[in-house]
Amino acid sequence: MTQFQKDYDAKRSQAAIDRVRGLIGDNRLALADRIAELYDKYIPLDRDVLLREALMASVASLTTPITGKPDKRRIVAVCGRSGAGKTTAVAKHVENIKAMQSYIDDDGVEVHPVIFIDNPSPSTPRLAAIAGLEALGHEPRDEIRENEAWRLFRRLLKVHKVRWVVIDEAQHAIEEATIREAKVIGNAFKTLTQMRDWPVRLILIGVPPLASFLARKQLYNRRTVVPFDSIDADGSTEVIRSVLETIVREHARMEIRIDLEEPGASRAEDDDDPDPKKKYEFLKRLMHACDAEFGSVVQMIRAAVEVAILAEREHVTVEDFMKTYASFSGCRPSKNVFKADNWEELEPSTALLRDDDRAWEEARLKSKGKSATKYGVRPQ
């Protein structure tokens, strides 16, 4: 894709956006802009320190390359479950590292040192290379072969002066790949990081089984892993409380009308000093609703604030979270995590399932000679 085509597409896209903005009215537009500002904020955690250190080490490895030896600075791998906030964190740190920013070279050409690739599924070696070529703006011919695609990808990385390749959903390299395909992709990644005339660095983002892929011999000594672990329901309440207050009070400039220390229905009326494990029930419900993933918690808080903003209120309530969870999960009103007494027993990931869905799940498992241990959860 030429720069002219990119500029033309950008102008068309902006024109379409401007048309919609002109149709919704000034009041609604102001609310939309306020919501957009809310979602543009970033909340760092301790793990962000580790991620930035790993990325800065990746930068340093290009200034003082170690040749002929494995080097753990060549690949940075960010591993964690869906909703942990991996992709957002990587994008934010890349945006703030000067060496990774776009620039104009001596020929007056704009250079983008970092490219982002969404790894296809299934990720065969050929399809993975084609995804890389497309990220560079190149459209390979339909009949291009696997080895040709990788050779062209390596050459174009040098032509475009790309130094970092970010591969999202990197676990696809192993999920449905054969042993041979996974090995080829692993070797291709290794080759990218040790090209003598133009070595690049990889940033891999993915959920399990990415860790299994990275345990391969050709990658093990060349990668630094930054885990994005799930949050602890009992040990992270203060962190989640701080995040909630930051988003609502600082980012949205609104009031929280929720008793964050409420111990819940389990507290006896004459219990003046309840068990700490019974306190902060709202925060624990919030973590449970988001499957204990930090990125999902942030997303749900922002969405609840959005509900309040659209209602033209300057405060956030439990009802805003109830509405948000209902829209996210598709649950029945009686099964809402922010309302039900048995909220700890509810499965947010299967809240959308109805009787017909469950019957289909059970029939499908039985047809394969398996027994369902829990509706909506496939046996491992």
From TrEMBL:
Gene3D superfamilies, per database record: P-loop containing nucleotide triphosphate hydrolases (3.40.50.300)
Q: Which InterPro entries match?
A: AAA_22 (IPR049945), P-loop_NTPase (IPR027417)
Q: Domain ORC1/DEAH AAA+ ATPase, which positions?
A: 72-211
Name the record gives this protein: ORC1/DEAH AAA+ ATPase domain-containing protein
Provide the species name: Rhizobium hidalgonense
